[in-house]
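R.M. (postdoc): so does anyone remember the format we settled on? I'll just put the structure tokens first.
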């Protein structure tokens, strides 16, 4: 056994030391694997960043109330009477003045222009009441002030300002036939709310002819444990007949749909490219075996077995793939991690998010690289192990 291990180490060392003799072939394999890993990790980082943005937006002590069967806010409707009943529900937290922390809201789609492309995109305009900011966690103004009640004024999320032009404080924007003045920019801890535009609810209702209903109601609860009592109240009151979800669950559902779609696009594309990289790896390793035919035959003639030749060739392929995987991970981190982008969310509006690369995702990319290296080196390794001594010496 010790002799076999020594033979494996010796053959593997010889193979790796001879890599410079096949520099361009080896380099082509490394580059191909690197590109595969970059494509895969870019999609995974995109899905991860989108998911983190949405899941960080929800809280267990905030309930969101929608029309039964509505999967998104834009498809929901809640009447004025139902909103008033929700204010009297048990478990609802109250402000210092004793009023319930409940916010009936409208969610509309307006146009914005992307900074990067100059093209139009759907943006969310949310009409909120005086408790709208208070029912959410971590809302702070980073510039300007909050909109005045009854005025055509808006405040915009920090992420939206970063991705879309014309929303700096003091700018005037037009939605439909109405002009609005940007009076403030708010932060929301990197959550999805930073992709929104907020305005006074009665003004939005009036200007967009939505006077008779809201789309959702948000209620801040006394504690997360109050959710069960609150939901039971809504479920048992025949005048309500509404769906109740914790904000955390609502955004988890929203993130799952889009992040799954992104991953379903990324993996097939990466696997298709992996077949190209696999062809390159096979070509490289078959060329490596052919170039070292005399060397392999000589080792066999002096007593080395076929198994060390098999292992040495396979390790060579795995090393090249590992280098490609590592380079792909580094390149993706440098090029994409923290990159800001926007894409359509469940409400058919743009959500601004950052690409986020995690150790787990890097592990998936490197694993794919090693699989390419394993498959690319397997058959050449078998050929090296079975090469007849005489044929190798004559080669």
């Amino acid at each position: 056994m010790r002799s076999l291990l020594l033979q494996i180490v010796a053959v593997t060392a010889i193979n790796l030391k001879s890599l410079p003799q096949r520099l361009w072939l080896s380099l082509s394999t490394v580059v191909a694997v690197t590109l595969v890993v970059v494509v895969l990790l870019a999609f995974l980082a995109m899905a991860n960043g989108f998911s983190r943005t949405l899941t960080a937006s929800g809280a267990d002590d905030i309930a969101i109330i929608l029309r039964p069967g509505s999967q998104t806010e834009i498809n929901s409707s809640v009447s004025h009477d139902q909103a008033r009943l929700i204010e009297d529900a048990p478990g609802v937290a109250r402000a210092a003045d004793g009023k319930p922390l409940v916010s009936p809201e409208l969610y509309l789609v307006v146009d914005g222009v992307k900074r990067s492309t100059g093209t139009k995109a759907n943006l969310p305009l949310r009409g909120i009441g005086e408790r709208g900011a208070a029912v959410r966690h971590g809302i702070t103004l980073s510039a300007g002030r909050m909109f005045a009640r009854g005025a055509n004024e808006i405040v915009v999320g920090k992420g939206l300002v970063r991705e879309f032009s014309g929303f700096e404080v003091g700018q005037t924007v037009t939605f439909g036939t109405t002009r609005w003045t940007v009076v403030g920019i708010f932060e929301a801890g990197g959550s999805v709310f930073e992709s929104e535009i907020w305005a006074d609810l009665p003004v939005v209702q009036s200007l967009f002819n939505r006077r008779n209903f809201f789309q959702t109601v948000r209620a801040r609860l006394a504690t997360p444990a109050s959710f069960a009592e609150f939901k039971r109240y809504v479920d048992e009151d025949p005048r309500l007949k509404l769906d109740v979800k914790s904000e955390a669950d609502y955004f988890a559902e929203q993130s799952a749909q889009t992040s799954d779609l992104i991953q379903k696009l990324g993996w097939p594309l990466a696997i298709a490219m992996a077949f190209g990289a696999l062809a390159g790896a096979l070509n490289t390793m078959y060329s490596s075996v052919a170039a070292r035919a005399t060397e392999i035959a000589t080792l066999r003639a002096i007593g080395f077995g076929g198994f060390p030749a098999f292992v040495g060739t396979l390790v060579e392929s795995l090393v090249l793939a590992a280098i490609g995987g590592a380079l792909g991970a580094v390149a993706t981190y440098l090029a994409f991690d923290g990159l800001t982008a926007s894409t359509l969310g469940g409400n058919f509006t743009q959500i601004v998010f950052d690409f986020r690369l995690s150790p787990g995702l890097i592990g998936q990319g490197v694993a794919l690289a090693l699989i390419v290296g394993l498959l690319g080196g397997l058959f050449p390794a078998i050929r090296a192990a079975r090469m007849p001594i005489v044929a190798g010496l004559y080669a």
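R.M.: ...and that's the designed sequence above, right after the tokens. Also worth knowing: Residues 68-241 form one domain. The CA atoms of residues 5 and 295 lie 19 Å apart.
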